């Protein structure tokens, strides 16, 4: 069933969600992610979609969409939304509830200009928002794809990660990837031995394989038994500081336990190179081209690319930074990604860090190569 | 690693600028090449800025945008001025001379002025086919693309449209060849 | 002991089976209207035998104190967001009895867009709005149903002349929905209203909307004058907001 197609990024994502067994989508139109919603609307109204029981609703706004995704998850369906920019801002109301209560909501975020309405085109300026939005502490899982193939591969993976570990899980793409057409291999995950994680409803599920107390933070959950039947009662409003301390501690512990299994990164280029580029998303793809240009030359460089921003591969980056004389961090934002890098390397690396910050603007391989050439320790 | 062939197309929103770049990239992929297409536009549905980036090569292309082009295609005067920064030594310049009258800024590049709109109206009786005329003109310069390969690609891309409107296939082919022959 | 059995019988008569008896005494203020609404709802749930298939959504505000009240699968959402959560839940689990239990602030201010859109789309959920004309839990601020001249925390000189008649609004945008306004003062009528609404909802007939006029002696500052509480509820509020089926 694996087939090579020439697809737009957003269509690759729509197909990935289908391949992953997603059942419900709630969203709102916003450039550059709307094609994902159009694709799903088409699927849901098709014969096969009706047979598969797909659910689709275009919500009245992203605030509603965020809570509708929670509703779908509570009913035990793999549920997702897709958005960008100001829509991502509004979704944080729902996402923060999901974060507090360990609901596996999934979202494809295709970053656009920021702050505010800005351009509909592209940025990497929603790193802060997607990783740390809402009033929580950022205990969410965030993947940063760097190619159309990544969109498909990780567009499937986000659902498995979400339902296995029960954290809000995001695919943090961007407007360039969303709209670019390129070759992508689409496949049925089963053909590749990818085990699809089963779901279980949070409400009205009377036979469980994973008891809710192992998921929902204890102060937020009460299971009441009457006449031999269990009733699951979940809340997010707490009364005492001790309760909220417990909620935060339990979320932290679960996240830290899961992190080593979730963390992903990639390294590229000659291991002996003294110049290190640290980049994510499509900027990492451009950085690879810059590395290729530098190989064998005076300004030989190598790349460290975190694939998960949350959890961030701190130890792997520290190891990669050993022997680096200078570190170049290109990003289409003002320091949002660089902050992760500096945070990880503080106290572990004395190399100079040069930030190539181009907020909401594309960064060409040539620009990264020039920055690397100019970088001296 | 040989750099891919880089094409940038621009015009006013609603002229089918993006379609040109997209069809060329798709045709190249259908012919077994590696290609990437990316649109770039402002918020207006019509009459805004519209730019299509297409790259065609033999190895996977890492980044969808570029700053210097091997070919620029302008469908309006404003678009021609917008594309000037993408010029480099040897860039092929193609423009729809129905709307592009002033070629002084690109004189050095021996621009190919094609009045695609008039050709489409008078010879094909279907103004919308002006895109096909332009694509025919473009094809001659794109390495590794053949007339037949492109025709096959068009058939695949417009399969459903051709079923609804069988005359369209012939019309597109005719338009395409007219453009192709003009750049002999 | 013989005496204990008689008391147990008394409790069995006084409270619905689906109520969590351990939650007694309830967490609401003495004299609050919520327990009356919940009791009526509980009896209807018992009568229709749907305890095990009911998904009960509550808002932030005094409605959240209902979290302890029932043995029902319950989820508390963010303020004003109970309706979209339960809309989606129902779409993904069409067999469930799906209730959104909210206050006038959550339903008519912050959540109004969700309410109206759900009504227009004829979403197959049941919404119960407990209307006491103030934001009670947060200290008595003006709500969309505060009546002109009422002195409240954010209108100390008296509330403005604008107020929202929601059942009328819902009926206007959805001719098919079940729309009614009840009142806490008479249990049998309230119970009958809850049962009728639930039956409409369970039959999948369409959007089910029940507003219940309720008292808040704390924020109405009538804690020590119960006759004034019911005066205001039955004479003033019920005059502005007619108690009837729409």
List the helices and strands and how they pair.
The complex is a heterotrimer of chains A (377), B (184) and C (246).
Chain A lengths: L2 E6 H11 L4 E4 L6 H12 L1 H5 L3 E4 L3 H13 L4 E5 L1 H17 L4 E6 L15 H6 L8 E3 L4 H18 L3 E6 H5 L1 E6 L34 E6 L2 E6 L6 H22 L2 E4 L6 E4 L2 H14 L6 E6 L1 E3 L3 H8 L4 E6 L4 H10 L6 E6 L7 H10 L3
Chain B lengths: L4 E8 L4 H14 L3 E8 L7 E9 L13 E4 L2 H7 L8 E5 L15 E3 L1 H8 L6 H10 L7 H11 L1 H6 L1 H17 L2
Parallel strand pairs in B: 1-4, 4-5, 5-6
Antiparallel strand pairs in B: 1-3, 2-3
Helix pairs in contact in B: 1-4, 1-5, 3-4, 4-7
Chain C lengths: L1 H13 L19 H15 L5 E5 L14 E4 L5 H11 L4 E7 H7 L1 H9 L5 E6 L2 E2 L5 E2 L23 H8 L4 E6 L3 H16 L5 E6 L12 H15 L6
Parallel strand pairs in C: 1-2, 1-3, 3-4, 4-8, 7-8
Antiparallel strand pairs in C: 5-6
The backbone outline of chain A, from C-alpha atoms, is: globular
SSE order of chain A, as H and E?
EHEHHEHEHEHEHEHEEEHEEHEEHEHEH
Can you identify the CATH class of the largest domain in chain A? Alpha Beta
- For the record, the CATH class of chain B is Alpha Beta
Strand order of the largest sheet of chain B: 2-3-1-4-5-6
* Percent in helix of chain A: 40-55%
**CATH hierarchy: architecture of chain B:** 3-Layer(aba) Sandwich
Number of strands of chain B: 6
Radius of gyration of chain B equals: 15 Å
Q: Largest interface, by Cβ-Cβ below 8 angstroms: which chains and how many residues each?
A: A-C, 42 and 33 residues
CA distance, first residue to last residue of chain A: 51 Å
Strand coverage percent of chain B: 15-25%
CATH H level, superfamily name of chain B? Pyruvate-ferredoxin oxidoreductase, PFOR, domain III
- For this structure, the CATH topology of chain B is Pyruvate-ferredoxin Oxidoreductase, domain 3
Taking pLDDT < 50 over at least 5 consecutive residues as the criterion, the unreliable ranges of chain A are none
Summarize the biggest pleated sheet of chain A. Answer: 7 strands, mixed
């Amino acid at each position: 069933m694996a087939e090579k197609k020439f697809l737009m990024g957003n269509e690759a994502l729509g197909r990935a969600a289908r391949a992953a067994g997603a059942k419900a989508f709630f969203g709102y139109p916003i450039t550059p992610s709307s094609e994902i919603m159009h694709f799903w609307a088409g699927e849901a109204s098709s014969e096969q979609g009706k047979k598969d029981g797909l659910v689709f609703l275009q919500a009245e706004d992203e605030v509603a969409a965020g809570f509708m995704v929670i509703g779908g998850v509570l009913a035990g369906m793999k549920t997702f939304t897709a958005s960008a920019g100001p829509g991502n801002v509004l979704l944080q109301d729902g996402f923060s509830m999901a974060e507090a209560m360990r609901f596996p909501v999934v979202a494809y975020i295709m970053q656009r200009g920021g702050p505010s309405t800005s351009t509909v085109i592209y940025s990497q300026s929603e790193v802060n928002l997607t990783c740390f939005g809402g009033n929580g502490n950022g205990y969410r899982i965030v993947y940063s794809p760097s190619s159309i193939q990544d969109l498909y591969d990780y567009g499937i993976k986000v659902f498995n990660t979400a339902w296995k570990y029960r954290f809000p899980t995001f695919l943090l793409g961007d407007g360039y990837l969303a709209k670019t057409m390129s070759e992508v291999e689409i496949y049925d995950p089963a053909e590749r031995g990818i085990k699809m994680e089963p779901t279980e409803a949070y409400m009205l599920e009377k036979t469980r394989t994973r008891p809710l107390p192992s998921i929902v933070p204890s102060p937020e959950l009460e299971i009441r038994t009457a006449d031999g039947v269990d009733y699951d009662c979940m809340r997010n409003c707490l009364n005492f500081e001790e309760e909220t301390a417990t909620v935060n501690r339990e979320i932290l512990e679960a996240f830290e336990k899961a992190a080593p299994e979730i963390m992903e990164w990639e390294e590229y280029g000659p291991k002996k190179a003294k110049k290190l580029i640290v980049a994510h998303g499509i900027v990492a793809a451009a950085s690879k081209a810059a590395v290729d240009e530098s190989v064998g030359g005076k300004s030989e460089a190598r790349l460290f690319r975190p694939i998960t921003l949350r959890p961030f591969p701190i130890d792997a980056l520290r190891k990669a930074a050993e022997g680096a004389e200078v570190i170049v961090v290109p990003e289409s934002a003002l320091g949002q990604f660089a902050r992760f890098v500096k945070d990880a390397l503080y106290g572990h690396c004395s190399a100079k860090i040069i930030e190539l910050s181009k907020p909401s603007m594309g960064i060409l391989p040539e620009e990264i190569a020039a920055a690397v050439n100019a970088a001296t320790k | 690693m040989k750099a891919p062939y880089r094409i940038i197309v621009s015009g006013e929103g609603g002229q089918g600028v993006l379609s040109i770049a997209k069809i060329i990239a798709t045709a190249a992929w259908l012919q077994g090449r590696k290609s990437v297409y990316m649109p770039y536009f402002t918020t207006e549905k019509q009459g805004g800025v519209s730019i299509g980036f297409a790259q065609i090569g033999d190895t996977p292309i890492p980044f969808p945008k570029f700053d210097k082009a091997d070919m620029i295609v302008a469908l309006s005067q404003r678009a021609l001025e917008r594309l000037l920064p993408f010029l480099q030594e040897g860039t092929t310049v193609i423009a729809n001379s129905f709307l592009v009258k002033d070629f002084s800024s690109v004189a050095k590049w021996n621009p190919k002025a094609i009045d695609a709109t008039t050709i489409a109206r008078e010879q094909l009786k279907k103004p919308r086919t002006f895109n096909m005329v332009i694509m025919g003109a473009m094809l001659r310069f794109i390495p590794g693309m053949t007339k037949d390969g492109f025709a096959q690609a068009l058939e695949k891309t417009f399969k459903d449209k051709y079923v609804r409107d069988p005359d369209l296939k012939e019309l597109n082919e005719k338009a395409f060849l007219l453009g192709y022959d003009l750049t002999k | 002991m013989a005496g204990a059995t008689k008391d147990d019988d008394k409790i069995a008569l006084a409270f619905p089976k689906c109520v969590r008896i351990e939650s007694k005494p309830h967490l609401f203020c003495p004299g609050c209207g919520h327990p009356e609404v919940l009791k009526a709802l509980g009896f209807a749930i018992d009568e229709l035998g749907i305890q095990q298939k009911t998904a009960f959504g509550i808002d932030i505000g005094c409605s959240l104190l209902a979290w302890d009240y029932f043995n029902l699968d319950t989820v508390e959402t963010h303020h004003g967001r109970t309706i979209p959560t339960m809309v989606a839940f129902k779409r993904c689990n069409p067999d469930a009895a799906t209730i959104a239990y909210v206050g006038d602030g959550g339903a008519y201010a912050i959540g109004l867009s969700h309410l109206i859109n759900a009504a227009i789309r004829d979403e197959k959920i049941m919404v119960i709005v407990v209307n006491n004309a103030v934001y009670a839990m947060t200290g008595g601020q003006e709500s969309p149903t505060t009546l002109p001249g009422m002195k409240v925390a954010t209108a100390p000189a008296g509330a403005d002349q604008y107020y929202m008649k929601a059942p009328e609004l819902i009926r206007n945008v959805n001719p098919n929905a079940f729309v009614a306004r009840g009142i806490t003062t008479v249990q049998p009528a309230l119970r009958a209203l809850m049962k009728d609404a639930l039956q409409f909802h369970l039959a999948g007939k369409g959007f089910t909307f029940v507003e219940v006029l309720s008292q808040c002696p704390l924020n109405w500052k009538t804690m020590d004058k119960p006759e004034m509480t019911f005066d205001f509820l039955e004479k003033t509020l019920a005059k502005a907001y007619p108690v009837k089926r729409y």
